[in-house]
Write a structure and sequence with these properties.
Largest sheet: 6 strands, mixed
Number of strands: 19
Strand order of the largest sheet: 3-2-1-4-19-18
Shape: globular
Low-confidence stretches: none
Number of helices: 15
Helix content: 25-40%
Radius of gyration: 23 Å
Oligomer: single chain
Bound molecules: NADP nicotinamide-adenine-dinucleotide phosphate
Strand content: 15-25%
Distance between the termini: 33 Å
Length: 435
């Protein structure tokens, strides 16, 4: 029997578990560890609360968890409650699927001013991640600046621009819903260092900006390249650029009743955050494209900003005992292999790119490598080894049936129009876990 530990219960973790089952059938036992008492990682705390159809993939992960040879072991911080070395002693392979939960920093002056956040923190706040639930962003001002032109920037801008009613059916947590409902933000500005052709926003998600109740997207036609140039784009990107063109041609009549604006400031690179204690403005430099890169022109200007959210990508968390690639913000690895018995997969391996589905082939690829390396397995103790150590050390771990208790309790607490109301502290989760 092969014993495999997966650290991290998000998409990369579950697709790897699924791949292990396909590879070895009942010749493997897979234990999925998570520091939270709840599974599904990014699906729960990253995917936007108003994108419930994407979250539905968790049903597939649930089916994996309910099979005989996959266990969820929550409330265990690997590297603290149990060391990597200890885990390595219990399992033939330890696979890190820990994602990229930390913000990349811009490294600009004023980044530590109040009300300047990274997207991990801001998204974690509206999604009820225990680390960020108490973020308490000040939304009383008029202008929000969102840095970046990826799908996370889109999520953040859309969530800020929506009305209370538009969250019907979502699982946005109550504290965020109430704060957003009381928000004074009328203007959201994307600060985008390159141009319309270079955005990383996918068409389905970008299109949603055109259908908000009180907000409409604003694109300056002068920023758009000649239409003939669009022919060189791949079809998906062309669709996104077509949407920008449609936004640029919206008339006042089209915007009737929509007093909130979601503006695109293209060819604008942030230089500094300005303010006394709290952010008041963003200084940006006009850019031009040279060989696809944004190059500063020396021309600067300021955009008033009452809140700033940088959406420029993520880094994985270092794990004690595991080499870290600081430049890439990933675990140091060669095609997923870290060192003897240690592997990584998903965003921890390759950085924050692709869709949730991209992690499926990634999971199958890493299991193939593990299969080459571990053969039949070395008769390791697996969960029994961890369980004995946890008892000795007083590690209060939970299993999948405990998550099912939390799940039921969250569903019972839901607003009338919501699928669940998440617990946002470890204490509340653990209390519900124990029923
Ligand atoms: P992303 O797609 O890599 O976008 C990051 C953005 O930040 C880019 O526009 C980038 O501009 C900009 N940026 C990076 N460094 C910058 C700097 N120093 N100054 C100014 N701008 C900077 O990352 P993401 O939005 O965090 O998304 C991560 C992944 O999750 C992506 O694969 C995304 O598609 C996926 N995702 C998908 C969904 C969905 O499908 N609904 C939702 C959320 C996230 P440059 O291009 O110029 O570098």
């Amino acid at each position: 029997m092969r014993q495999i530990a997966i650290v991290g219960s998000g998409p990369a973790g579950y697709y790897t578990a699924e791949a292990a089952q396909k590879q070895w059938g009942d010749g493997v036992q897979v234990d999925i560890y998570d520091f939270l008492p709840v599974p599904y990682g990014l699906i729960r705390t990253g995917v936007a609360p108003d994108h419930q159809s994407i979250k539905a993939v968790s049903r597939r992960y649930e089916a994996t968890s309910l099979s005989d040879n996959v266990c969820f072991i929550g409330n265990v911080l690997v590297g603290d409650d149990v060391s990597v070395e200890e885990l390595r002693g219990f399992y033939d392979a330890v696979i890190f699927a820990t994602g990229a939960p930390n913000d990349r920093e811009l490294g600009l002056p004023g980044e530590d001013l109040a009300n300047v956040f990274g997207s991990a923190a801001f998204v974690g706040w509206y999604n009820g991640h225990p680390h960020f639930a108490s973020l308490d962003p000040d939304l009383s001002g008029e202008t929000a600046v969102v840095i970046g032109a990826g799908n996370v920037a889109l999520d953040v801008a859309r969530i800020i621009a929506k009305t209370r009613g538009e969250f019907s059916g979502s699982d946005i947590v109550n504290h965020a819903l109430d704060a957003l409902d009381a928000s004074g933000i009328e203007r959201v500005v994307f600060v985008v260092r390159r141009g319309p052709h270079e955005i990383a926003m996918t068409p389905k998600e970008l299109g949603e900006l055109g259908h908000l109740h009180l907000a409409s997207p604003v694109v300056d036609p002068a920023d758009l390249p000649p239409e003939a140039d669009d022919a060189a784009l791949d079809p998906g990107q062309r669709k996104s650029v077509n949407l920008l063109r449609a936004f640029a041609s919206l008339s006042d009549a089209d915007r009737a009743g929509k007093h909130r604006r979601v503006e695109f400031d293209f060819f604008a690179s942030p230089v500094a955050f300005l303010g006394q204690g709290k952010v008041e403005a963003v200084e940006v430099e006009r850019t031009q494209l040279e060989d696809g890169r944004a190059v500063g022109t020396g021309e600067t200007y300021t955009i008033p900003a009452d809140i700033v959210i940088g959406c420029i990508g993520y880094r994985t968390s270092p794990v004690p005992g595991v080499p870290f690639d600081d430049r890439g913000g990933i675990l140091a690895n060669v095609e997923g292999r870290i060192s003897d018995g240690l592997y990584c997969v998903g965003w921890a391996r390759r950085g924050p790119s692709g869709t949730i589905g991209t992690n499926r082939p990634d999971g199958f690829a890493i299991v193939e490598k593990v299969a080459q390396d571990i053969g039949e397995g070395a008769g390791k103790a697996g969960f029994a080894g961890f369980e004995a150590l946890a008892a000795e050390r007083g590690v209060d771990f939970v299993e999948f049936h405990h998550w099912q208790n939390i799940d039921k309790a969250e569903i019972a607490l839901a607003r009338d129009d919501a699928p669940r109301e998440k617990f946002v502290t470890m204490e509340a989760m653990m209390a519900a876990a124990r029923g």
